[in-house]
Write a structure and sequence with these properties.
Layout: H1 6-9, H2 19-31, E1 37-41, H3 49-66, E2 69-73, H4 77-83, E3 86-91, E4 94-100, H5 101-106, H6 111-118, H7 134-138, E5 172-176, E6 179-181, E7 191-192, H8 194-203
Parallel strand pairs: 1-2
Antiparallel strand pairs: 3-4, 4-6, 5-6, 5-7
């Protein structure tokens, strides 16, 4: 189920296995417990591109065939987009944007999410990567240490910062039925708690 061949792995020590085999063994060990949830923290960070695709395919297959929920933690938005239905974008431990992965990645609303998405290189050799987008140009280095930031944690980098951003952390505002953003730029939307949003996404 994890894509391992017993004749290549049984009886071997960890140092005798490839990085991909070790990652698959971690998946197999988790499956032995018949879990309802698998928490995968950077499961493909140490493998090459070909193995990355195979391991992600295995995780998605297990989720689909065994009904196991998968919580996938990563810095890699490309793989997050491949395996996820819903996504939480965190900035310094706080939720910046949450919702359908299609909407969050293809049409980001929070300035930090926009910065993240704009940093993904495009698979087109005719498009020069490295030129800064408008948000990258405006999102300067932090103007103050995080300990001194009283409101939104991104306010000391945000090109759209307003007075209220520096007074109190923004709540989550609904921008769509299946997406919410912690940003005063979207305060025309209804406020929603993190729990309510999670329950709504689970039902969807």
């Amino acid at each position: 189920m994890a894509g391992l061949r017993p004749e290549e792995t049984l009886g071997r020590y960890p140092h005798q296995l490839s990085g991909g085999q070790r990652q698959r063994i971690m998946v197999a060990r988790a499956l032995l417990l018949s879990p309802r949830v698998i928490l995968a923290d950077e499961p493909v960070s140490m493998v090459d591109a070909s193995l990355r695709a195979t391991i992600l395919e295995s995780l998605v297959k297990l989720k689909r065939e065994l009904g196991i929920s998968l919580i996938y933690i990563t810095h890699d938005l490309t793989t997050a987009y491949q395996v996820s239905q819903n996504i939480y974008i965190l900035y310094r431990g706080s939720v910046a944007e949450v919702g359908s992965v299609e909407k969050v990645i293809k049409d980001p609303k929070h300035p930090y999410t926009r910065l993240l998405v704009s940093s993904i290189p495009l698979p087109d050799p005719d498009i020069h990567w490295g030129g800064e987008s408008e948000i990258e140009t405006k999102a300067a280095a932090p103007s103050a240490p995080l300990a001194e930031v009283r409101g939104c944690k991104f306010s000391n980098r945000c090109p759209y910062v307003m007075a209220e951003c520096q007074q109190a952390p923004p709540p989550l505002y609904l921008t769509d039925d299946d997406r919410a953003v912690a940003c005063y730029l979207h305060k025309e939307g209804a406020q929603v708690s993190g729990r309510e949003m999670a329950e709504s996404l689970a039902r969807g």
